[in-house]
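Researcher: For the record, we're logging two predictions in this thread. I'll number them. Prediction 1 follows.
Model: Prediction 1, sequence and structure:
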Amino acid sequence: MKVIITVTDAKNQRNLKTLSLNLSQGEISIGRVQSNIIVNHPLVSRQHARLRLSAEGSLVFEDLGSRNGSSVNGARTQFARLKAGDYFIIGAIKFLVNELEGSARELPAAHPPQITRSAGEWIKSMAQYKNIYGEPLNESSVTKK
């Protein structure tokens, strides 16, 4: 399954980047360190959450017992099935699921999960967060690994 996710500043809705994720084999981890998607923010745990495919081939979000928790579509939760249009928030970062293409049964499981950058630009000026969270969000706040 291919998933397109737009990553934004949760407060100001400014786009940070767009991710294209291939979940045909395995899972995508999200956290401050040792993760596929690294979010450099003090409200994000080292290993905060993951995206994976269910046995039926649907996209699943799981909070991994993070200290500050996660929300899906505005409600705090540890587990949710996601569809296009759903979003989850980790720390000060909002992840909007734009597209779901294929399913686990339709795509070959030839490669491990990959994260690629789109041609979109990074928003470089987010000084407002310095007053709220103690440090500004910038292009290094969300990185791929």
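Researcher: Logged. Prediction 2.
Model: Prediction 2, sequence and structure:
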Amino acid sequence: MTTHFITAEIDLPETAEELHAAIEAELQKQGEPLRWAVTDVDVARQKATIEGYVLVEGTKVEVETSVTA
């Protein structure tokens, strides 16, 4: 398992409950949300910027090896 830092932008919903659900849903697309914060709100565009950490299971790391004969 590894953690990843995520930055996302979401539309501002009508209520705080909808905002929380929208943030969790957006972060879930990348992994299991561990913690997050709203770091910016653009009222004119009705957008919120979210930064958070997600836990990703089974991250596969590809390693290239060269074979010489």
